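Incident log entry.

Two folding requests arrived from the same account within the same minute. Monitoring flagged them as a possible duplicate submission, but the sequences differ. Recording both here for audit purposes.

Request one:
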Amino acid sequence: MKADKFPTVVESALTNGGKRTVIDSDLATGAAAPSHYHTDFTEEFTLVSGSMTVWTAEDLDEANFKPLELEVGKPVSVPPNTLHKFLVNEPSRVHCVMTPGTIGFERMILIMRGTAEDGVYKQFSSPESDSGATFYSVLGDLTNTLYVGNAKARLEALIAAKGSEVEAVKQELIAKYATDEHLKKAAGL
């Protein structure tokens, strides 16, 4: 996913007994997420401003994607096990509620912000490079993001070849940017 700015956690699952994670994102024209699904939470997208298209397929088949142009102020829910992707058509602000909350998603945001502040995010931002594929694998694991098609095949091959290295990178990123203490501090606890 590419974005103008990194998402901001508006409400942490740490502050509401795990009921939800709420994030706001400012997304650039062309920002996109490849086809994926989650098994453990519902995502509810509300367009605050701009233009964004979300495609969904309840049967996890990309051939059956149905596009939906988001309307400002009207929430759209994507239940667990629903294949989806999105494309931002013009600069947009999106409010997203994940139910139940997902600490993994919150960790991912801290990692994205931390690597950007350290000046290393760019080397990770392309899933086409080895370091980028590793980064995407780590972020996917943290956020319960399951890919399909080419992205799935590439990440499965990476895990088969370098699974222990990917896990080591994940643990390093968490230790540096997204420990439980980092999460508590970000949540104001």
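Request two (distinct sequence, not a duplicate):
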Amino acid sequence: MSCKQETSTTQTEENKKQPTVNVEEIQQGALASAENNTGNVWVKPHVMQDSIYDMMLVTEAFEPGARTYWHIHPAGEILVVTKGEGYHQIKGQELEEIKKGDVIKCPPGVSHWHGAVKNNVMSHLVILPNIAEGGAIWQDEVAFEEEK
């Protein structure tokens, strides 16, 4: 079961170029807790849960090689990649490469992680629906060595 929603974009000459790493460009918001991430991850809130909206919308930005720990969202999670390249993996399944424009729908209660490739930044919008069901349940650090 893949969480990645296929996009119908074609690769342009600009997309084929070697990525340019501009870490300063993604350093917006607050530095996330090192207790739940490997490397530096920046979080910028846009919409927070309140009496009207039972959801959250934030931007997460990963420095090269940074990634979350394994975690679960009781109500699921939707990621919309806005910059760079990264990875997403559901526990027990193949590693998925993700890039700008990809939409990843992670079902409720599924253990997964996401983060940047080692030579590029990656940022995505995070949509957390039905937040009243609970926030992230953090698990172990990802034991991952990128072969690329």
